């Protein structure tokens, strides 16, 4: 006898004339699924959105490239003892205990055995996120609102600021695993997620304007980075830096989506995720969530993996023995310039070389840009690069001593630099303070595109 596929019901209220979803009504099963999106680490999200569904694979900024570059790396030479790239490609969802009871769970990450102290989780942690007594209104851009009992739909439209006249129709959708996957893809790319889900058409990708983050700087987080910039448009072709920057980029894949939105002040610019996050923050803990702990797992999640850049504010990257890294030290350049020679085609192009110091704000900007742009270094470090656009090779530049400002030199590259030239240029920039778990590895440089 065939097994019936798990599914949940979603009631859509649609404008008959435009076929646009005005809002939806859902119970616990569907709302728990939406909430679970915030618990997914970026590495898991990238793996999932590349699966086939009604909408096909999608690309999320530069994260797909980061994910596949990690997958292509050599296990023997690049990973610290006790770590491996599966921890990045299939990172642990630290809210897995909440998600395991979802009626439709798209996270296929295999469970890992970890020690949990007795009494760490209450019984409510085994039953999703929200109470079963409430009905929720979901807007087209995934803002969640509890629906008062017997509240008329016209009043809901009024509260949402939707003005008529128009005729309404109700459509009931069976949300299967494929549709949940579609909904995840839409949530990361679109502001009209439910309409896109209903019509099963190509999702309209909305490219937001990028704004640099504003955070208090942390003097412990400082990375030297050499940027190779195309002078004609200020685009970063690649960067050269120590393994601490590789650690930072690798660790992006382990960050849960909700934690990223929180760290970026609710302004990740990723599809409809910011609205979903804020609506959950605004909901009353006691009335709608299983517990305060449950809500915190969504809006302020923590990571169980003990990596130096997991929590930027407690990073120890340059001092002391015993700090841990994804990447191993070594004497050779680890080439992240896959496809560089054939794709960039920059033969006989003027290149500016910029020496800069990456601090906390730049780390967060690169993280934010990696989710929305295919040129994460150019976008995330744009505030450091404006001076390079259209500048001449004969321009004089004085090195700056400001940590947030780059120093630069002009050079003419006759063809793409070779790996040997990159290695030579990096030898003088290697950090003497890089550490390893055993203190024996020397620093190594990494190339980032």
Automatic annotation (TrEMBL):
The keyword Membrane applies. InterPro entries: DUF674 (IPR007750). Keywords: Membrane, Transmembrane, Transmembrane helix. The keyword Transmembrane applies. It comes from the Eukaryota. The chain crosses the membrane at residues 338-361. Residues 418-449 are annotated as: Disordered. This is DUF674 family protein. It comes from Phaseolus angularis.
């Amino acid at each position: 006898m065939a097994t019936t596929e798990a599914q949940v019901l979603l009631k859509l209220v649609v404008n008959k004339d435009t076929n646009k979803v005005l809002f939806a009504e859902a119970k616990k099963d569907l709302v728990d699924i939406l909430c679970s999106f915030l618990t997914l680490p970026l590495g898991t999200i990238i793996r999932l959105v590349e699966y086939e569904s009604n909408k096909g694979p999608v690309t999320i900024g530069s994260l797909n490239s980061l994910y596949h570059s990690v997958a292509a790396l050599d296990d023997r030479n690049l990973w610290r003892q006790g770590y491996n790239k599966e921890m990045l490609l299939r990172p642990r969802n630290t809210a897995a205990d909440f998600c395991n009871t979802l009626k439709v769970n798209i996270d296929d990450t295999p469970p890992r055995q970890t020690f949990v102290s007795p009494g760490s989780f209450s019984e409510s942690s085994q039953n999703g996120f929200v109470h079963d007594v409430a009905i929720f209104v979901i807007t087209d851009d995934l803002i969640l609102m509890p629906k008062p009992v017997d509240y008329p739909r016209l009043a809901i439209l009024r509260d949402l600021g939707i003005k008529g006249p128009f005729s309404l129709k109700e459509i009931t959708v069976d949300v299967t695993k494929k549709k949940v996957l579609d909904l995840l893809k839409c949530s990361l790319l679109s502001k009209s997620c439910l309409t896109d889900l209903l019509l099963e058409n190509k999702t309209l990708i909305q490219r937001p304007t990028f704004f640099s983050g504003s955070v208090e700087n942390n003097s412990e987080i400082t990375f030297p980075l050499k940027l190779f910039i195309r002078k004609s448009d200020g685009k970063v072709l690649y960067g050269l830096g120590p393994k601490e920057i590789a650690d930072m980029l690798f660790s992006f894949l382990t960050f849960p989506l909700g934690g990223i939105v929180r760290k970026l002040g609710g302004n990740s610019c990723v599809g409809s995720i910011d609205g979903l996050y804020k609506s959950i923050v605004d909901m009353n803990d006691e009335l709608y969530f299983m517990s305060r702990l449950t809500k915190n797992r969504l809006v302020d999640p923590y990571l169980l993996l003990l990596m130096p850049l997991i929590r930027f504010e407690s990073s120890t990257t340059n001092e002391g023995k015993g700090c841990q890294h994804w990447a191993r030290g070594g004497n050779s350049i680890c080439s992240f310039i896959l496809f560089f020679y054939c794709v960039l085609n920059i033969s006989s192009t003027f290149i500016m070389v910029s020496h800069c110091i990456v601090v906390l704000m730049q780390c967060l900007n690169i993280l934010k840009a990696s989710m929305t742009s295919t040129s994460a270094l150019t976008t995330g470090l744009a505030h450091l690069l404006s001076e390079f656009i259209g500048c001449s090779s004969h321009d004089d530049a004085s090195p700056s001593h400001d940590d947030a400002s780059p120093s630069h030199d002009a050079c003419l590259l006759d063809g793409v630099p070779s790996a040997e030239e990159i290695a030579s240029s990096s030898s003088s920039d290697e950090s003497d303070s890089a550490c390893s778990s055993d203190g024996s590895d020397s620093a190594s440089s990494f190339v980032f595109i």
